Amino acid sequence: MENIGGFLFQGISGKILSGILGISLIWTVISFFIPLNINVEIPSILLGLLFFFKNKLYQEFYQFSKKDFILLSVSSLTVLFAGSFYPYILDHFGYYIPTLKWLTEYGLIKGISNVDLTLGQMSVWHIFQAGFSNFSDPFLRINTLLIIIYSIYSIERKNWIHLCFLPILLLFSQSPSPDLPVIIFSLIILNEIIAGNRNATLLFAFSVFVFTIKPTMIWLPILVFLNFVFIFKSTFKQFLLGSSILFLFFIKNIWTFGYPVFPVAIGDLGLSWKPNPEVLKTSSQFAIMKTYDMQYTYEEIQKFSTADYIKNWFSLEGIKSKINILFILSLIIFSLFTWIKKKKIITMIFISLLIKSIVVLAFSAQYRFFTDVFFVIVFVLFHEYLNKKRSIAIFSVLSLFFISILSFPGIIQKYIPSFRVGSFMTGFEKEQMYQPSTYEYQRFDTFKVGNLKFNVSHHYPYSFDTPLPAITPAYLFDDVKAGIFPQLADKNDIQKGFIPKKMTSEENEEAQKVINNIKNTDK
User: Fold this and answer.
1) Which positions ≥6 away from 377 have C-beta within 8 Å?
2) pTM for this structure?
């Protein structure tokens, strides 16, 4: 990657990030044709080891002073311990694991969103994770490694405020959540821009890469583009690599989802494997209800006046309303800070965040879509004032706090019961000291509708370890309600993909039997 685009920045972390970008893009292309199984993973690892020793990259570690090495060791042990807990984010079971299973067993499947709409995302981060999940990382803790890489970056660049963010990120270390890499990568790119890094080609490419992981990060490529066009007067040629990554992202989404950007049904190409409009409509309604934390029905929300939309969003029961209020207050404070400072780069950051905020508020104003904004605002406000000593002190206190929450989740369950994720934390178990904690269920029922034989998890809403092809009960109900059902494009080859098919009376009867079976099981 450095031979192609130069150095993102010097040091171990710079090489690793360039490698992550390169591997992710290569594996994305490969996954169109073959699964990301051990036949892809082993050659990649061997090639990496070859260059590691051939180019003597291990010598990079000698740059650390004794104090820096101790700091890195302590932070790494803290991260490893946090990463050993049971995963508790619900998307881990309903989205992350099923996505990885499809990628490792089949690769990118055309029209996979017809089996489960969520699978249409197939995040580039999960492509990267899937390639290492067969042998190197069977417990799916690559996010734990990424936090360690982030601590290396902070120490290498002597930019200590990043250490203050590490403890919060520990909450993402147990699952292959794409939220973690986009927060880390955006803070690194932001730091490089403020520090005056002029590698427009790689910085823009990496910012687009972050966007492909999670499109709600649209503010980052906008910021990098504005910075290099209006401050450094970059040429069109320097944006070609990033534009190529964006094109690959559109092709991937069209292949898996039927439209260029998931989950937005814009840019209809009339493809046979695009999801049924009724299913997309149901998904859109669900996203609107999630904006209000499922505290109102879709019909009730449709009757809101403009004032009701705002008032009810700010007055949701529980912690969500507090986060929403804090979000708006943060934007107001940052706008005042921007006006006072009158610096071009800060103005561009504010404009970029404002564009992102408007898009999120218009689409689905869930707090998980604007979490990164808090990190960015805190970074810009305080990066000049937090030196090494203060940052280490904050890191120590916050690490103790968040490790305590992971170890004794009863604390958060008692004092913040509305924070539902906390109710799925299980606490410390001694076995995790030698093996990361994971769940197994492996109970499922097998059905057949039309030409599709599929599995449904038995008396459980998610299909995280159900053999493929697996359909979650919720999406199965949505399909039957819409009068359609996913079918194999080629009944003899699952890799040819899926299409949505209007059910015949016979298929509808088969589907109703499946529905009744699931309902009886739930009883």
Assistant:
1) 330, 331, 333, 334, 353
2) 0.93
